[in-house]
Amino acid sequence: MTELELKYGCNPNQKPARIFMDRGALPLKVLNGRPGYINFLDALNSWQLVRELKAATGLPAAASFKHVSPAGSAVAKPLTETERKMYFAGELELSPIASAYVRARGADRLCSYGDWAALSDVCDEATARYLALEVSDGVIAPGYTPQALEILKTKRKGGYNVVEIDPNYVPKPIEHKDVFGVTFEQGRNSFRIDGALLENIVTREKDLPEHAVRDMLLALITLKYTQSNSVCYVKDGMTIGVGAGQQSRIHCTRLAGQKADNWYLRQHPKVLSLPFRSGIRRPDRDNAIDVYLSEESGDLLENGAWKDTFLLAPDPLTREEKKAWIAQMSGVTLGSDAFFPFGDNVERARKSGVQYIAQPGGSIRDDHVIATCDKYGIVMAFTGMRLFHH
Predict the structure, then answer these.
(1) Are 139 and 116 in contact (CB under 8 A)?
(2) CB count, 10 Å around CB of 186?
(3) How far apart are CA 366 and CA 203, in angstroms?
(4) Dist. CA 292–CA 296, nearest whole Å
(5) pLDDT of residue 312
(6) At what angle do helices 249-265 and 319-326 cross, to 10 degrees?
(7) I need a labelling partner for 27 at 20 to 30 A (CA). Which of 39, 75, 274, 370 fits?
(8) What is the DSSP secondary-structure string of 359-372?
(9) 205 in Cβ contact with 378 (< 8 Å)
(10) Is 296 a residue whose pLDDT tops 80?
(11) Contact 143, 29 (CB under 8 A)
(12) How buried is residue 33: exposed, middle or buried, by Cβ count under 10 Å (0-12/13-18/19+)?
């Protein structure tokens, strides 16, 4: 048996704590820092996501995890100038795997604060330099270049968590979990998500372009490792809104839709030109943008709170301007880990530019959900596979 002792479990009172294997060596090495219990939950879930995403798309993939769910995930793609401004990438030289992580974190920068990063490919110097700029707890990857490891070891006063995973490791087909002294056993969810899963298009509109297929695969693989119930909005090879752990499907759709709207609003010229004071930290910028886009933005202007962050009072973004800007969003893909019980999910999704949907199907109201898609010319595929994750 091999084991790694941990400081404590989910909370400081939960001791002793460890990760271990009854047979064989652990498939990972800690190269720096001292990862905790939740760190390893994030690391192992996020690694599975990026590994499967690269296998399905052939592209380098990255994820940004918080509390065992992805705040964002993405495949590699060159950033536009607008994206560089949105994600604070500036003039940094970005490799493919670095661009994947910048986009994954950019999906929801507020939720990615203090994240666990996962990389499908070897962490290079470009990725390490970007990670060094962000507030992050740790990273997992199949390897690190010497330059990247040297950079990461200087982060968090030398305590940044760096984990190397064996990319060839294959877990046992049966997994166990203890709850209240009772052991649960189930077959590991090794279901393969690929293009064949999307062949059952049930709507009148059948045109499913290649980019939508890629985005559906990204959405479904992301949902496979998101705490259920969950819904995921995807555009251009990256998640733009993940709604996780909600009891109601429509609440998942609304939560993820609001995040998608905020992602799009961050591209508004008024947001990109906000007059930040020099020296304002990246997390403080993210918080200020979130407040600026929220219903509380009026308070920011009225009580003078802007003076701590901005050189001058920012020009307000009115409700009408927000609505008009969001109305331009299109080409968005939505995935759901279980069936839509009502057409209201489609009604909410199309307000955030959704044109493609992948969901299991199987509701007694499938006909109504399909009719709602047909009403808006949305393409919907029934996968026949539920993707609950707990």
Answers:
(1) yes
(2) 9
(3) 11
(4) 7
(5) 86
(6) 100
(7) 75
(8) E----TTHHHHHHH
(9) yes
(10) no
(11) no
(12) buried
Catalytic residue IDs = 66-67, 229, 390
- Other CB atoms within a 10 A radius of the CB of residue 352 amount to 26
**Side chain identity at residue 174, one-letter code:** I
Say what percent of the chain tops pLDDT 90. 92
Residues with Cβ within 8 Å of residue 51, at least 6 apart in sequence: 61, 120, 167
Q: Is the pLDDT of residue 1 over 70?
A: no
Q: Which SS3 state, helix, strand or coil, does residue 246 take?
A: coil
pLDDT per residue as tens digits for the range 32-47:
999 999 999 999 999 9
Instruction: Give the total residue count for the chain.
Output: 390
Check pLDDT > 90 for residue 251: yes
- Tell me the pLDDT of the chain averaged across its residues: 95
Phi, psi torsion values for 175, nearest 5 degrees: -125, 155
Residue of 305, 318, 306 lying closest to 276 (CA atoms): 306
Residue that is written with structure tokens 């973004």 in the block: 317
Q: Crossing angle, helix 37-57 and helix 210-224, to 10 degrees?
A: 160
Contact 119, 127 (CB under 8 A): yes
- Of 93-102, 175-184, 292-301, 380-389, minimum mean pLDDT range: 292-301
pLDDT of residue 357: 98
pTM across the whole model: 0.96
Question: 3: burial class by Cβ within 10 Å (0-12, 13-18, 19+)?
Answer: exposed
Residue 289 exposed, middle or buried by CB count within 10 Å (0-12, 13-18, 19+): buried
Look at residues 140, 102, 108 and name the one whose alpha carbon lies nearest to residue 122. Answer: 140
SS3 of residue 128 by DSSP: helix
Number of helices and strands in the chain (H, E):
13, 15
As a whole number, mean pLDDT of residues 6-13 equals 95
Distance CA 21, CA 120 (A): 23
| Residue 88 pLDDT | 95
Q: Kindly indicate the confidence band of residue 89, based on its pLDDT and cuts at 50, 70 and 90.
A: very high
Residue bearing tokens 């507030």:
135
The predicted pLDDT at position 35 comes to: 96
pLDDT at 69 over 80: yes
Residue corresponding to tokens 């943008």: 289
